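just leaving the lab so this will be short. what follows is a protein written twice so to speak, once as letters and once as structure tokens for the fold. can you read through it and tell me how you think this chain folds. anything you notice is useful, everything is just below:
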Amino acid sequence: MSQKDVGNKIPIYKLKTTNEVMKYYDEWGIKNKYDQDMEEWNYTGPKESSQIFNEYCDKKDVKIYDAGCGTGLVGVELKKYGFSKFYGADLSQKLLDLVPKKLYASLKKVDLNKAIDEKDNSFDAVICIGTFTFGHVKPHALDEFIRITKNDGLICFTINEGIYEEYGFDKKIEQLNNNKFWKKIEFFKSDYIASKDVNAWLGLYKVVK
């Protein structure tokens, strides 16, 4: 689905620059309209990814970097499975301000298109849901996710189907596979935002170092 087609269903997908996207999120966060829309649209990304992550992660005390955490929807779902050590990062301060209190160990305003200010091998897992989409974070962020994740750690993410090839995620994932930086555990088409007929690829990979 092209950016023009999907933009008619979800307006933020029409935007191309970071400044445009941030302005939209700032307005979207007013009176928690963002969370209301996600519920109304039947946004399944956080639930589905948390379920898959839980299936392959036995330890509940793992340190999880939630890249593009928004209002904390992924943290809310992971907590239901007993996980609790969440470290959130998002470019929108307005959305970070809406994260439930005490749900995350820390929250940082971060541009995921740039180098992440975290040490190598700092986390047991990285989860990035709803962030690889039109006008948002580009494929090179996967390199940073691998860098900050420990050996045998997990990286779970969604990629909007409309940008999978257009932005070069297909080539990036192939490169990481060929260089044996990670091993595929799951990779399939998810409903994502079913009510809007917007699908995404959902991937779960184990880091190899």
Remarks:
- The chain is about 30% helix and 30% strand.
